[in-house]
Amino acid sequence: MPFAQLKDARIHYELSGTENADALVFSNSLGETLAMWDAQSASLKAQFRVLRYDTRGHGKSSATPGPYTIDQLSHDVLALLDTLHLDRVHFCGLSMGGMTGMWLALHAPQRLRKLILCNTAAKIGTAENWNARIETVRKTGMKAISSAVIERWLSPRFRAASPQIVSETLRILESADPEGYAANCAAVRDFDARETVASIKVPTLVIAGTYDPATTPEDGRYLANKIQGARYVELEAAHLSNIEQPERFNAELRAFLLS
Question: If 0-12 CB within 10 Å is exposed, 13-18 middle and 19+ buried, where does residue 185 land?
Fold first, then answer.
């Protein structure tokens, strides 16, 4: 079980795939772990060197005192890349992970080859809603919000057809450290790239979910329209489009990265 010891945190990661191929980094959503990318790793590791990691406060990575910022989480990525001697990478982030991708493209574009922004937005939610969620998980734990979150993450049709996947996704969410989760909520709450996202020059693919109530297709089209030359793809899915539509998701990633 590999860990990278950063300045103030240990980051759990998995590096697999083809040794000399371009590196492809996957960044998890709020409340999930590197396991959310299982289908992508299995499909793409024959063509890429796949790096997955648990964002600070998630999974087996350190849950250091919060609140966190996207700037902080992005510096974790840069430190992890330095530790693993990875100079330039493709970066794929979903939701909160997409915010990390935006920050990297804006502040460290020299480290990126291509960028995939999945089910994310330049600004997600309101401070009022995030503060209420932070208060709830701190007072009563993750189970207080888990059912409502899963309903937003996965469409009703998928939940009915894939109960085992839903159960495992729920288990990971409910096992999250409440303080780590709350600290990451603050990072999402405080990130706003609406005025800066147009400055991204890294080749970008934006993936949205037709049924995503958290980061809507409108949010995805906003990013694609603001980022010069960005490609937009919409999948028949809710928020976790990579889990709900893995084959289409993987095909879109592969076509974009190899083009």
Answer: buried
Question: Which ranges of 195-245 would DSSP assign to H, the alpha helix?
Answer: 217-226, 241-244
CA–CA separation, 118 vs 195, rounded Å? 19
Those residues of the chain that have pLDDT short of 50 are none
Burial class of residue 232, CB neighbours in 10 A (0-12, 13-18, 19+): middle
Q: Residue 39's domain spans which residues?
A: 3-257
Cα radius of gyration rounded to whole Å, the chain: 17
pLDDT of residue 225: 98
Assigned token pair, 67? 């609140």
Q: What is the pLDDT of residue 160?
A: 98
The CATH number of residue 169's host domain is 3.40.50.1820
Predicted local distance difference test score (pLDDT) of residue 233:
98
Look at the pTM and tell me if it is higher than 0.85: yes
Our count of domains for the chain comes to 1
Task: Give residue 15's pLDDT.
Answer: 98
